[in-house]
Amino acid sequence: MHRGRLKDAVELQMEVLGARQKMLGPDDLDTLSTLHGLGMSYHALKRLNEAEKIIAIVLESRKRILGQEHAYTLWALNDLAKIQCAQGRPVEAEELLVSILDVVERTLGTEHIGMFMTKHNLARAYLCQDRWAEANALLTELVGVQTRTLGAGHPDTLNAQSELARTYRHLGKVDLAEKLYVEVIPKLKAKVGAENPQTLSAMGQLAAIYTERQQSGDRALENDAANIGQTVGGLDVPHAKTF
User: Fold this and answer.
1) Over the stretch 19-46, which tens digit does the pLDDT of each residue have?
2) Angle, to 10 degrees, between the axis of helix 155-170 and the axis of helix 113-128?
3) Mean pLDDT, the chain, integer
4) How far is residue 172's CA from residue 82's CA, in Å, rounded to a whole number?
5) For a 10 Å CB count at each end of the chain, is N or C smaller?
6) Triad 207, 208, 214: Cα angle to 5°
7) Are 94 and 126 in contact (CB under 8 A)?
8) Between the CA atoms of 157, 161, 162 and 167, what dihedral angle is there, to the nearest 10 degrees?
9) φ/ψ bin of 49: left (φ > 0), alpha (ψ from -120 to 50), beta (otherwise)
C-alpha cells in the first residue's frame, strides 16, 4: 500500500480504536482486531518498535481471553515473528514459529491458511539468516500445497514462488531462478499491481540476475525495475538486492 494511504489507514484505525475501546472495552474481540490492524500498519510503515508493542498487547490479551491455541492467538504470534524478523531478530522469530508448528497442525490442519502463514514466515526467518537450503525445502513444499489448495494464481502462492526463486538464485540455480521470476512477475503485476512491494522485489531480483550474468534478458522487465526504482511512494523496497 502507498505510504500516504497507510498513514490515512492509521488515522482511521486510531479513530475506530478509540470508539471501540469506549463502547466495547479494550478486551472486546473487535477492539483487539482493530488494534492488531493498527500494529501491522505500523509494521508496513517501518515503525517497528511501536508495531511490536501493539502486537504484544494483542497477543497477551488473546491468550488470556481466547487461549494460547486459538487461531487468532496464533495469528498474532505469526505477526510478532514477522516484526522480529524485520527488526533483525530472525533467530527469535524462528524459535517462536517453530514452537507453534505442532499446535497449528493439530488445531488448524496442514492445509489451513494459518499453517501456510506460519511456514512462510518461518521460511522468511531462514532467508534472513542466509539459510538458503532450508528455506528452499520449506518453500518448495509450501508452493506445492498452496498451488493445489489455493490455486497457481493466488497472491500467496505467487509470493511463495518469488521467495523460492530467490533461494534458487543463492543456491547457484540461476536458470531456475530466472525462469520462475519470468513466470511469476507478470502474474504478480496482474494480481497485486506493478508497484506492489512484492512485485518490485521480484523485479529487482530478476534485474540483478541479468546484471550479474551480463545478458540482455527481458529488457522490458529490467527497465520496469530500473524505472520504478527502490521506493514505492516512500516505502523502502529492494531494487536489485543481492542478499
Assistant:
1) 999 999 999 999 999 999 999 999 999 9
2) 30
3) 89
4) 27
5) C
6) 90
7) yes
8) 140
9) alpha
